[in-house]
Amino acid sequence: MGRLSVLSLCVLLLSLVAVLPAQAATTRYEAENATNVQGVVEANHPGFSGTGFVNSDNAAGPYTEWIVRAPAAGTATLALRFANGTATARTADVAVNGTLVSAGRSFGPTGAWSTWATSTLTATLRAGDNTVRVTSTGAGGNPNLDFLEATTADAPATEYQAESAVLSQASVATNHAGYTGSGFVDYVNAPGGYIEWSVNVAEAGVHTLTVRYANGTAAARPMDLAVNGVTAAAGVTFPGTGAWSTWADKQVAVTLAAGVNTVRATGTTANGGPNVDRITVSGAGGPDGQAPTAPTGARVTGTSATSISLAWTESSDNVGVTGYRVYEGTAVVATSPTPAATVGGLVTGSTHTYTVTALDAAGNESAASAPVTGRADTGTGGPTAEQLLSKVTTCQQISNGRYKTDADVATGTIPVCAKTGAVHWTGDMDIDCDGVRTAQCNEDTDCCFQPQTFCPASGGGYLNAARLPFMVVPSPSGTWDYRTRGIGCGTVVAIVHNGQVEYTVMGDTGPAAIIGEASYAAAANLGINPDPKNGGTDGPVTYIVFTGTGTKVQTIDNHDQAITLGRQLAQQFVQNN
Fold it and tell me: Which Gene3D superfamilies is this protein grouped with (predicted)?
């Protein structure tokens, strides 16, 4: 065989390496930690995030300024959470790095200082630190500001297939579905086997190495990761994924030198390493030019006197959908990581028409969905939050003792109470991310992630916490056994928080001594931070679990069924109590 020409060699190398688009990341910046001029931090209105919110002086000129860090230059989505308890809009200039990006931006009335809404805009950020300043332009000052969430793109990543690497005590296989490239690598069942890649990065420093793997056994398969012959991460665990055809990602931070580096993954136990599909390494890459498909099936799922709730069928993308935007005309009125959102702060009786678009990690935006129109009133959305809460102001305790809100709380304070047709309690909300692995819910995003839920999905497998709103009941104990009230998988629940009602189902069980938990999607739909690491809320959150016959949906993961049945049961509950 003759030598390869330089051109042929370059073509061969390029065929083994692919560039993946940047991944979107959302970071929350609390207003109380920002630079505030002519404003004070307060905590006298509930519903805020963090330790408080910022109340500016009633004048033109006060400002709040955050420092927002972007891993790479590009377009970012900026979401400002605010409250305006007056009857008139408050206006402000929004500037990024000293350049005005939204002049006289209107922050309309939200109905009360304890009712929070989100104003979303897009802006171009540079790599590194950026300043985002909101300066009041009217005599009323800024609205109360809770936080700024910035969704930015990480530096693009480069992909290296395992089957193209140097192998020792490992071989290329294709007998399990779901791999990328032309195959995956199967280690022999012995310690010492390895895969070694040649990784080229433009800049020295810490890079994120993501290993895509499968482990069809119940036992974790650890590996040592070495860079340029030196162990960079010892005993990295790769837990079971449920099946050899089920793939997961494991991220590890490693320090790389500029130029070519060797990255070696070595199995350390008698079982060898997991099956490995590829690695991706943060660094220079090319663009993703393909936008997601347009959302379909946009519909109104609920209304209140000041809000309209929407849902739609999730979009698809060549890499992955990272979120959605809800538009009224050309203005973004809501963003969501899931195919549902609630637009709040509306005037009772007002009619609004919305369209929805999907976004991917590279910032590509889909075409708009078909328009959907709703009216902010209580005529078709079931009882209001206020009507439901008025029925649970007293407690006929049925639990034998009280539950704790969190494991580190010394004593229980939350009783389970009974009413005609329901049981209820009021506490906090922790985030349940168990079930199907997703970008939002996995071992890396949630320290306590479990790849199953107590309740199975309708088609087999487990529920998807990132997509399906569901709540969690404590496991049966001497304190209380939910089964004595006929509650089980698919029982409909009304969750009430911050003036909103979200209809969900019972989908999982939790620790026997703790109460107050719901899925990532349920939290997101209620405007609660759904991040399992730092999300949730101290409340108050009220859970009304309907009891009796006819309180379970036919298909547990059909959220529309939960909404329809929930409205009927909630109306009966209000009438009977």
Answer: Galactose-binding domain-like, Immunoglobulins
Q: Is there a cis peptide before residue 532, judged by omega within 30 degrees of 0? A: no
3-class secondary-structure state, position 8: helix
Q: What is the CATH number of the domain that holds 60?
A: 2.60.120.260
Structure tokens at 59: 């004048």
In the structure, what pLDDT confidence band is assigned to residue 126 with cuts at 50, 70 and 90?
confident
DSSP 8-state symbol, 566? H
105 and 199 share one domain: no
Domain final residue pick, 243, 263, 286: 286
The reply to whether 425 and 480 lie within a common domain is yes
**CB of 349 within 8 A of CB of 308?**
no
Q: Find the mean pLDDT for residues 508-537.
A: 91
pTM passes above 0.70: no
Task: Decide: 414 and 404 in contact? Cβ < 8 Å.
Answer: yes
What's the CA gap between 494 and 474, in Å, rounded?
Answer: 17
Residues 432 and 446: their CA atoms lie apart, in Å, by 9
**Could you tell me which of 527, 124, 120, 128 has the C-alpha nearest to residue 363?**
124
Residue 147 shares a structural domain with residue 269: no
| In a shared domain, residues 557 and 454 | yes
305-309, 335-339, 387-391: range with highest mean pLDDT = 387-391
Supply the range of the domain harboring residue 339. 296-376
Task: Identify whether 5 is part of a domain.
Answer: no
